[in-house]
Amino acid sequence: xxxxxxxxxxxxxxxxxxxxxxxxxxxxxxxxxxxxxxxxxxxxxxxxxxxxxxxxxxxxxxxxxxxxxxxxxxxxxxxxxxxxxxxxxxxxxxxxxxxxxxxxxxxxxxxxxxxxxxxxxxxxxxxxxxxxxxxxxxxxxxxxxxxxxxxxxxxxxxxxxxxxxxxxxxxxxxxxxxxxxxxxxxxxxxxxxxxxxxxxxxxxxxxxxxxxxxxxxxxxxxxxxxxxxxxxxxxxxxxxxxxxxxxxxxxxxxxxxxxxxxxxxxxxxxxxxxxxxxxxxxxxxxxxxxxxxxxxxxxxx
Length: 301
Known about the structure:
By secondary structure, the protein is an alpha/beta fold. The chain has helices at residues 6-10, 14-19, 61-67, 94-108, 120-131, 154-157, 164-172, 174-182, 190-197, 207-214, 225-234, 256-265, 281-284, 286-296, and strands at 2-4, 25-29, 32-39, 46-50, 72-76, 113-119, 136-144, 243-248, 270-274. β8, α12 and β9 (270-274) form a beta-alpha-beta unit. The chain is globular.
């Protein structure tokens, strides 16, 4: 089932709604109702933007506003995130999120997809791209990974500690609150900060924020290790696809070393990086990122 989901967007406070004025749709997937934005002409070239943790489709608002005049821009909220359902008894594994994104793509019959990814969106989006490569045309990769790595900042690793992680992340919303400070180089406006935090207002609402961190597969015994290993291996088959890297070099999590690994795997990629931009690239440098994407798509402004 799908449908216009006006009550979810209509419930947004005025200052947030002003920044995020689109009416969303829903699709029933594994885990419940998945909320997504679908803006622009339905027969136009497709941009699919996939967010990470602890953000949601609100993070891509500058891209939606910029490109939806001439592209069909589809931006989902993962289950547990944004305006999607937040089940308390769901697995919240990488494979679940990949399956749900694939369900949305198949449902909308998206073809020749320009995939734009950030943070966990890299593994989730590339999870579908490695499974259905013929559906994808180009990739825009921003501060993310879709390959195995043992690199994890101590401030994120501590969230994986049983008990402490739940208390800090679900009890105090520490992960999402810290991101509004540590993930940017330029201070966020009050409305932007409120928008990023809006979906995560209670213990129950913050379940995915914790589960995403717990799902980082550092060891081969982790339940999501094999899933990420398959995605990692599958990237080689995508090497002929055009790729644009837009990277914030101040990122404490996805450091420039991750960008260099993308460059190694995709040697023909166009790589742009900024020393004054942090993890939230679309908050620190939305105009620069949009301009780079326009150029990459062959539409210099």
